Amino acid sequence: MLLTVLSWICSSLLASASGGKLPEAEVTIEVLHRPFLCHRKSKYGDIMLVHYEGSLENGTVFHSSRTEGDKQPIWFTLGIREVIKGWDKGLQDMCSGEKRKIIVPPGLAYGKEGKGKIPPESTLTFIIEVLEIRNGPRSHESFQEMDLNDDWKLSKYEVKQYLKKEFERHGYPPNDTLHENMVEDIFAKEDENKDGFISSREFTYKHDEL
Ligand SMILES: [Ca+2]
Ligand SMILES: [Ca+2]
Fold first, then answer.
1. Interval between CA 82 and ligand 1 midpoint (Å)
2. 106 CA to middle of ligand 1, Å?
3. pLDDT (tens digit per residue) in 103-146
4. How many contiguous H segments (helices) and E segments (strands) does the chain have?
5. Number of the ligand closest to the Cα of 153
6. Cα dihedral sign for 196, 201, 205, 208?
7. Residue 120 CB: number of other CB atoms within 10 A?
8. Cα(176) to centroid of ligand 1, in Å?
9. What pTM was estimated for this model as a whole?
10. Would you tell me how many other CB atoms lie within 10 Å of the CB of residue 157?
11. Which helix (H) or strand (E) holds 99?
12. Helix 156-169 crosses helix 176-190 at what angle (to 10 degrees)?
């Protein structure tokens, strides 16, 4: 999907912006509901669809996806800093249908600056319900799907075919020039050793900067 392609590109931008490492406070996780059947659990690189409600320490709700805005759940990719660190850390190993309460210290949320309705140095509480989990662009499954000739590396042709397919699947008309530009952009960032292929190692997201 377009979203995953974009987040793939964004993830490489974020990955290059890793800072110094300080010992960090942890996320407190409380499982409120876990479904009886759990076919797979969320892991880094997965795309998750969630409803959430976030509140401050005094109980004020600063956002609820069910009642505010377009009232739609949100998609995000786990583990690439698309969301606050506290989510990346606190929403692993979740099942579809699971509901969690996570308490996130400011250092793993909006820190010293705060954001919008969130004052500086706020500890945040989120109630998060997972509606769906899909393979993200960084998953082993996605790599295999893209690697048409099974040689464990992605050629520009293979990446282009993948983009084309993803665009079509989401109702966008194929656009050769756009796809070629996106492929060049992806290879500029992902083909680290510049051999013209994205190896499975180059593809697999490195999440040590979390
Ligand atoms: Ca290949
Ligand atoms: Ca390469």
1. 28
2. 43
3. 999 999 999 999 999 999 999 999 999 999 988 766 777 888 89
4. 6, 8
5. 1
6. negative
7. 11
8. 20
9. 0.62
10. 11
11. strand 99-104
12. 130
